[in-house]
Design goal:
13 helices; mainly alpha
């Protein structure tokens, strides 16, 4: 917020934000706050690799939202993508594999990463996927002629107000804040909120929420890899296979968006 508002006030490029757009940006800000709250609260009891897998269920949830809004059944490739995502999720969280409640007994079905995970934490992880899906879906309707910096500032302000209400302001004045917490908190704020929101508002109106979901899927393998390298979380080959299947499912579900149209191919050949 402190970074974007000064830029937005002095860099007055683009169309003014209409009242309708203010309402839309407010909804996106509320959805963003919901994503942050549910995701980070789930991380208090879930491993980072499990939390990110649950968050990535947005890939099929956003398709469900689109089907409910448009009242049209998803195309065949989207249904196939959903199946691949579900299978990949089962493998990625270790359902049916070793390392769960019956570790060491291959004859029994295990629950993998979910074995020691509280139900409320898993539900929070899935809720973060719902809120993130709403963020992506609604972002496709913002006015791309208005300033992306101003849009980002408005959205993050709404999210910040919500988070300030949810969490007591006493947390802002803890002793640890002046012993390094402000530094790490600032880094997290820039790379998890400011830059993603700004880049999202620049890109999504031009490429659409669906394509943004495909491009954003690179976050999944990166997050799992970092959880393994930095946090020393165990990532088995079967779980990596699940991650790959989720990525393949996302790409398959948006294949019509990714592949070039016949006219585009013809124009390239003639040029």
């Amino acid at each position: 917020i402190l970074t974007l508002w000064p830029i937005a006030l002095f860099w007055r490029k683009g169309r003014p934000v209409s009242a309708r757009q203010w309402g839309l940006l407010t909804l996106i800000g509320l959805a963003g706050a919901g994503t942050s709250y549910t995701y980070y609260m789930s991380l208090t009891r879930l491993s980072a690799s499990l939390a990110i897998v649950l968050l990535f269920q947005f890939a099929w949830i956003v398709l469900l939202i689109d089907a409910l809004v448009t009242r049209r059944m998803p195309a065949l490739e989207k249904l196939l993508g959903i199946v691949l995502i579900v299978i990949g999720t089962v493998l990625a969280v270790g359902l049916g594999g070793a390392g769960g409640a019956h570790h060491g007994n291959p004859g029994k079905v295990t629950f993998g990463l979910l074995a020691s995970a509280p139900l409320w934490a898993v539900l929070l992880g899935l809720s973060s996927a719902v809120f993130y899906s709403l963020t992506l879906y609604l972002s496709a309707y913002v006015d791309m002629e208005s300033s992306p910096v101003l849009r980002s500032a408005i959205t993050l302000t709404v999210s910040g107000i919500v988070m300030a209400v949810v969490f007591s302001p006493v947390h802002f004045y803890t002793v640890s804040l002046w012993h390094g917490l402000w530094y790490w908190g600032s880094l997290v704020a820039v790379f998890s909120q400011t830059l993603p929101m700004l880049l999202m508002y620049i890109a999504i109106p031009r490429i659409g929420g669906r394509m943004a979901g495909v491009l954003g899927s690179i976050e999944l393998p990166v997050a799992v890899l970092v959880a393994h390298l930095v946090l020393s979380e165990s990532v088995t080959p079967m779980r990596w296979l699940g991650v790959v299947l989720i990525l393949v499912g996302i790409v398959v579900s948006e294949w019509r968006v990714i592949r070039p149209k016949p006219m585009q191919v013809a124009s390239r050949q003639t040029s």
